[in-house]
Design a protein that fits this description.
This protein has about 425 residues and is mainly alpha-helical. The protein has one domain. Helices cover about 70% and strands about 0% of the residues. The protein contains 13 helices and no strands. It is globular and about 65 Å long.
Length: about 425
């Protein structure tokens, strides 16, 4: 069985970890600021909605974090890689359980990643594999947090501005923080996948910029359309979300996702994918992704168009006179521009185009929309026995980038699917 090794932890990984914590704290701080503003002004309904979104998103992320932790601690050599004795590791399990219950598990993962990264990069200590392991899990958790909290809150902030016809400084700060968080986490997730596969060309900054732009240009009109629709039919937005979310979950189930290690965990993952699909495309299954992507974007364009037309018909002509026409023209054009940037990325800025020679012919088709597969990495393999391998992100990366059919493990079992944006 051919196995790949981890990318070594570098100063760039450390910088991304620090920026991830800063973005997380900025977004969390702006949310608290907005919540306090709502409470002080007597807007208890919006205060409750905002706090509810923060709590539900936090619970969701803590659940993923804890499920992964309970699985990881059963891996051979995990306690040795983390530097804990058997007794100490047992105490750490209890402490970790308490932190997750107190909704602090995600933050502690950030702190652990920074501390481990500092020891590896600055002090040149051992543990590079564990540092990379932590950063890859964080990239996925941040992505979940982004679409379960930041995107809904961004929609809420825009909705409040539209309904009150006024914008406070704190609202602009919250919108800017949420938008930055969404765009940054999507790019960070993609860069994390590429860094996991050492045979792949690292994504240059120019390529990352285009990737950032096309995601931003596709997500922003979707969020704005949802907020506009909610401003005229607030009672219908919840029904709209639940209806589409249910359909998306069924679609994920129909694609036979296999990301988690249990049936209950898999349904939790499918429910989360349904939330992500409400705002953005996210591939979750093997095979040619072009058809599924085309179906999704066609549906998204149609649904967004219906939302905008509904808003135009039910809006207050006097109150919206100053911006209605510009929005109804700008938002569809922005989405179209996002699709053009996406095509530009794959035609001119995809990292595979920066590599003239490919040693492995299977790497020549380095396209997310190709037939994909993955090679399961085993902690028992002699070639990698000294490394702590993150199976989840290994599934993501190799399933994202390879072209062959599913390759079985040495024990005859097949691998899991890998989602990608």
């Amino acid at each position: 069985m051919e196995c790949a090794s981890f990318s070594k932890y570098s100063w760039i990984d450390f910088v991304f970890s620090v920026m991830g914590v800063c973005t997380f704290l900025l977004d969390w701080g702006s949310d608290v600021w907005v919540a306090i503003e709502f409470y002080c002004r007597g807007d208890f309904f919006w205060f409750g909605i905002l706090v509810g979104l923060m709590f539900l998103s936090s619970v969701l992320v803590q659940m993923f974090s804890w499920v992964w932790f309970t699985y990881d601690r059963q891996l051979p050599g995990f306690s040795a890689q983390t530097g804990a004795s058997t007794v100490l590791f047992g105490d750490r399990v209890k402490l970790s359980c308490l932190l997750h219950v107190l909704q602090l598990g995600f933050l502690c993962r950030h702190v652990s990643a920074i501390c481990q990264g500092f020891r590896v990069w600055w002090r040149k200590e051992e543990g590079s594999e564990y540092a990379v392991y932590l950063t890859h899990d964080l990239s996925m958790l941040r992505l979940i947090e982004t679409f379960s909290e930041c995107a809904p809150q961004l929609t809420l902030m825009i909705y409040v501005m539209l309904t009150t016809n006024q914008a406070r400084t704190v609202q602009f700060v919250s919108i800017a923080a949420s938008t930055t968080s969404i765009a940054w986490m999507v790019v960070d997730y993609h860069r994390s996948l590429r860094s996991f596969v050492p045979d792949k060309v690292k994504q240059p900054w120019g390529s990352s910029l285009i990737y950032f732009l096309w995601n931003l240009l596709l997500i922003a009109p979707r969020v704005a359309a949802l907020a506009l629709f909610a401003s005229v039919l607030p009672a219908c937005i919840a029904a709209h979300f639940l209806m589409l979310w249910f359909v998306f979950v069924l679609w994920a189930w129909q694609q036979r996702t296999d990301f988690m290690d249990s049936d209950s965990g898999e349904w939790l993952y499918r429910a989360t994918v349904g939330v992500i699909w409400y705002f953005s495309w996210f591939n979750v299954a093997e095979g040619r992704t072009w058809d599924r992507s085309l179906i999704y974007h066609s549906f998204s364009i149609t649904d967004t168009g219906i939302l905008l037309v509904t808003w135009w018909c039910y809006r207050d002509p006097v109150q919206t006179e100053s911006y209605a026409l510009s929005l109804i023209i700008t938002l569809p054009l922005t989405y179209l521009l996002g699709l053009l940037f996406k095509a530009l990325y794959y035609c001119c800025f995809h990292p595979k185009l920066w590599r003239p020679l490919v040693r492995d012919p299977r790497l020549a088709e380095d396209l997310p929309d190709a037939l994909v597969s993955f090679r399961r990495f085993s902690t028992q393999d002699t070639a990698v026995s000294s490394q702590l391998l993150n199976k989840r992100m290994a599934c993501h990366a190799t399933h994202f980038y390879s072209q062959q059919g599913v390759v079985g493990n040495s024990d005859g079992t097949n691998g899991a699917k890998s989602p990608h944006l």
